[in-house]
Amino acid sequence: MKRNEAPAQYKWDFTNLYPTIDDWKKDLKIIVEKLTEIITFKGKLNNKDIFKKYLQLDDEIDLIASKLGQYLHMGDIDTTNLVYQELSGVFANTINELSSQLAFISPELKAIGEETIMGWIKSDSDLQKYEYGYRKFFREAQHILSERDEEILSLVSRSRGAAYDIYDLLAYADKKPAYVNYQGKEQELTQALYSEITEETDPLNDQKLRAETAKLFVQHLTDKKHSFARVYEAILQGSVESVKLRGYKNTLQAALSSDDVTEDIYESLIKYGRETSHLNVRYNKILKKYFKFNKYYASDSRLKLVKNVPSVNKKYSVEEAKNIIRESLKMLGPEYLSQLEIAWSDNRIDYFEDTNKRAGAYSSGGNGVEPIILMNWDNTISSVNTLAHEAGHSVHTLLADANNPRPLSNYPIILAEVASTVNEHLLFDYLYKNAQSDDEKIYLLQNRIEEITGTFFRQIQFADFEWTAHKMVENNEPLDADKLADLFEKISNDFGSSVFDKYEENSKPYGWTRILHFFNSPYYVYKYATCIVASFKLYNDVLNNNPETLINFLKQGGRKEPLLILKDIGIDYTDEKVYDGLINKLTSLIDDLEALLNKKGN
Fold first, then answer.
1. Sign of the C-alpha dihedral, residues 134, 135, 137, 142?
2. Shortest CA distance to 5 belongs to which of 377, 391, 380?
3. Dihedral angle at the C-alpha atoms of 382, 386, 387, 391, nearest 10 degrees?
4. Distance separating alpha carbons of residues 311 and 198, to the nearest angstrom
5. pLDDT in tens, 94-132
6. C-alpha neighbours within 13 Å on the C-beta side of residue 451
7. DSSP H helical segments within 404-525, as ranges?
8. Beta carbons within 10 angstroms of residue 506's beta carbon
């Protein structure tokens, strides 16, 4: 189903935020008024009453900005829609015009000093919710520049950030439909059709079709590889310039500092991922053997091991998926389930794909704004899993908002993927327990293994790639499309991709251009890996009849350092044993899959 054919309740409706675009613009004017008032506080923040007024206005601005930003997500439904592109530009330009005049704030607060400000906060109950934020502020204060330098950086921030927008326009807005000859007719190569071809076609007879389809699916990206390389280099250069100006040792230190994650933790994650990636290789060798491939291409790795089983080939409607997820999450209790119903109530989720709709899925919201979800529903079990995952984010947001004052409700990204992956674990258990045949179990095991390896090994591989690319720019090494392709290939091979044969011997892998996070959220992807590790701990707590550990974790929001919140649930990334739960589970799943395939072969 395409988006324009979907029922109204399966599409976003943001009239609860703003009935009209004029209402959106009115709120933008209110932000301008409040920011203008804050500008008058220059040189006066050493007065406690002025300081309190500043915090109040800052909170009010943050809430309105969250609403404005949420509304702009409508642009993801049709990335060619010039209305939302214009609004996004107006929003950014308006804030940028004033932000340079607000550059005095951080240097002035730094000058007032930690002792004075923390004294105000501790002695005033109205201010105590800001204690954690200012503890973080003064921990990072050494990297705050002079007022003039902060003003200069603010003045150029819009132009320096243009590269992020250029990627989105190149990748999505300029995308033209591609067509493939399949089943005797020319068909538009949608995500759903791509999945069908790469997962459901004949293993040996359609090997060329899969390889050619995979190539065609990303052709709009590889055709622009030189542009993407220049955009990516510009983003990295901007990061390197910023950390040099602010006195960080490198881009990695700067990116990790807000979560108090050390470079050693990041480095050990990559090291451990490499050491255990033999599980990735083992799994792919099982597929190669089962399908009797002489040559085994990456485009073959998505093939389903079982077909023509009613329970396996079932197409899931949205409502069927909701019922399955409800059942699978029952053990989390009524409080969780009530929030789940809010998370996917009418018009909160935009389900179905469209030609110029943004790819993938996400949940967005919080800070006082109700969460929403974007999906590209294809009626498969994969979409059911994605809905469970994204709903986990939304429930996390709802519980964090309900149990913390602003700004402590805003949990950091390093905690964000924990709840969503717990949902995936529980959904798998429910489906596996209710499987009606060995073939269905094989199907579920294959999906689960792919989900875990994709979240753990693949994201660590990406983390290694972007860290290395940043270091190349830090060392003044110019980047180009081929260098990045070679780097991506080398690191991919380190994490198990060497098991694949090349379809075109002299081709280069430009797959890095598909990874949105490289462009929009540098040093983000490693958090997927750390979060799934934490989620296995909470998952085991749920299985041991202690769902309150998960619920209490979700209610923590961002009220203190994220690694301390994780330590409260028994997660310590400085201890390599922290990974045992995930690796043991993955090994067990691969063992079970191999045993069932051997049984099937007999």
1. positive
2. 377
3. 160
4. 20
5. 988 888 899 899 999 999 999 999 999 999 999 999 999
6. 25
7. 413-433, 438-455, 457-474, 481-494, 516-520
8. 5
The per-residue DSSP string of 107-175 comes to: HHHHHH-HHHHHHHHHH-GGGGGGHHHHHHHHHSGGG---HHHHHHHHHTHHHHTHHHHHHHIIIIIT-
Q: Mean pLDDT of all residues in the chain?
A: 92
Q: pLDDT tens across 474-523, in order?
A: 999 999 999 999 999 999 999 999 999 999 888 888 888 989 899 988 99
Length of the chain in terms of residues written: 602
Place of tokens 């010039």: 82
Q: DSSP of 268-337, one letter per residue?
A: HHHHHHHHHTHHHHHHHHHHHHHHT-SS-BGGGTT--S--S-HHHHPPPPHHHHHHHHHHHTGGG-HHHH
C-alpha angle 272-536-373 in degrees, rounded to nearest 5: 105
**Amino acid letter for position 4:** N
- The pLDDT value given to residue 602: 56
Q: Give the mean pLDDT per block of 10 residues along the chain (602 residues).
A: 87 95 97 96 97 97 95 93 93 86 94 97 96 95 87 74 78 85 94 91 96 92 92 93 92 92 94 95 96 95 88 86 97 97 96 88 92 94 93 97 94 91 95 93 93 94 97 96 95 93 86 89 92 93 94 95 93 90 95 94 64
Condensed to tens digits (0 to 9), the pLDDT of residues 426-437 reads 999 999 999 989
Strand, coil or helix: 371: strand
State how far the Cα of 172 lies from the Cα of 167, in Å rounded to an integer: 8
Pairing status of strand 349-352 against strand 369-377: parallel
pTM for the model stands at 0.84
Distance in angstroms (rounded) separating the CA atoms of residues 524 and 517: 7
At position 236, the amino acid (one-letter code) is L
Q: What is the pLDDT of residues 224-260, one digit of tens each?
A: 999 999 999 999 999 999 999 999 999 999 999 988 8
